[in-house]
Write a structure and sequence with these properties.
Number of strands: 15
CATH topology of the largest domain: Fructose-1,6-Bisphosphatase, Chain A, domain 1
Mean pLDDT: 92
Strand order of the largest sheet: 4-3-5-6-7-8-9-10
Bound molecules: 1,6-di-O-phosphono-beta-D-fructofuranose, magnesium ion
Order of helices and strands: HHEEHEEEEEEEEEHEHEHEEHH
Distance between the termini: 57 Å
Shape: globular
Oligomer: single chain
Length: about 350
């Protein structure tokens, strides 16, 4: 007889224990572990603020125009302050944040750098839909001035850790230190507990995530890919597809980690969207790291996101990630367009994907 008590028989190990075990006596790993523990503490504090919703004031009110002219909301600023403050207790030299034009210097000689999107999905704050915090940890390379943008212009494969916290019906942390993708959930006492230490992104899922309202702005390969999904059983894919779009990348990514599928935010013809919307350093890099660690894939249309090197702090990148089979197929619409309805070769038209 099923009971109402669905709690796991034994609670998973804590984030602190998992990191302790992984770090051992390795000095670099211990620095990363200390940083992730501090960052997690900041997000736990933030989870409490977000859970208060309108009781904490109008968190969705627009305060200023941010780095890219996108309005900064009250919760963007609160999140930024909380996460950066939490990192002051860690061996972090500087933080690059979506909410700050330039890196914020913390401790110039410290060994690590952190890039953050303190609040992902700001447009959802007042609608009680999941939002998140995305982060990437990089080495502070010898001889580089941590306050300079150059210090952050690293390759995706330089990343030491990456992940996100999602503030949803429950708060969860997806984390990688390069030893698989780990899924933690926040318990009622405010401790992240391990749920799954070997997350795998399923293949064979028939679900895609894209903002369809941009259809008329896309270039041919993306239209062709989506058209073929929409054609369902009678189309070339010979199956019906479902569609989801939360407009919080963390929420779309979290769904894909649980049940597979694909997310696409391509470049398009709107002003300022040539390279899409997502930021390379603190949105695409960490999610791509998690995806690859979970046997999924993440590309800019041509190649792996992690093979890119950042060329500016707030650089945007076309971003496609999810189940490996589906991402590989989407890439073929770009790389072999003639195989998909005689469409013009992408790169002869214009540089949609970088
Ligand atoms: O409104 P759009 O263009 O569909 O944008 C949704 C996308 O923008 C983002 O919200 C950008 O994040 P921010 O809230 O950090 O600016 C992504 O999370 C999301 O997938
Ligand atoms: Mg974001
Ligand atoms: Mg943000």
């Amino acid at each position: 007889m099923p009971t109402a008590d669905h709690r796991a028989a034994a609670p998973g190990i804590t984030l602190a224990s998992a990191l302790e075990e992984w770090a051992g006596e390795d000095a670099r790993r211990r620095d990363v572990a200390t940083t992730l523990t501090a960052l997690a503490a900041g997000t736990i504090q933030l989870a409490r603020a977000i859970a208060e919703g309108p009781l904490a004031g109008d968190l969705a009110r627009t305060l200023s125009s941010g780095e890219a002219g996108e309005g900064q909301k009250a919760l963007d600023i609160i999140s930024n302050d909380m996460v950066i403050d939490a990192l002051r207790k860690a061996p972090v030299a500087a933080v690059a944040s979506e909410e700050n034009d330039a890196p914020v210097l913390l401790d110039p000689d410290a060994p690590l750098l952190v890039a953050i999107d303190p609040l992902d999905g700001s447009s959802n704050i007042d609608t009680d839909i999941s939002v998140g915090t995305i982060f990437a940890v990089f080495p502070h390379q010898d001889g580089t001035d941590a306050a300079s943008v150059t210090a952050f212009l690293q390759n995706g494969r330089d990343m030491l850790a990456g992940g996100y916290v999602i503030y949803g019906p429950h708060t969860a942390l997806m984390l990688t230190v390069g030893a698989g993708a780990w899924h933690f959930a926040l318990d009622k006492d405010g401790t992240f507990r391990l749920v799954n230490a070997a997350v795998r992104v399923k293949e064979g899922a028939a679900e895609f995530a894209i903002n369809m309202s941009n259809y008329h702005h896309w270039d041919d390969p993306i239209r062709a890919y989506v058209d073929d999904c929409l054609a369902g059983k009678k189309g070339p894919r010979e199956r019906d597809f479902n569609m989801r779009w939360v407009a919080s990348m963390v929420a779309d990514a979290h769904r894909i980690f649980q049940r597979g599928g694909i997310y696409l935010y391509p470049g398009d013809s709107r002003k300022g969207y040539t390279h899409g919307r997502l930021r390379l350093l603190y949105e695409a890099f960490p999610v791509a790291f998690l995806m690859e660690q979970a046997q999924g894939a993440a590309i800019d249309g041509r190649g792996s996101i992690l093979d890119l090197s950042a060329t500016s702090l707030h650089q945007r990148v076309p971003f496609i990630f999810g189940s490996r089979d589906e991402v590989t197929r989407a890439a073929r619409y770009h790389l072999e367009p003639s195989g998909h309805g005689e469409r013009s070769p992408l790169f002869a038209r214009r540089g949609l994907f970088i």
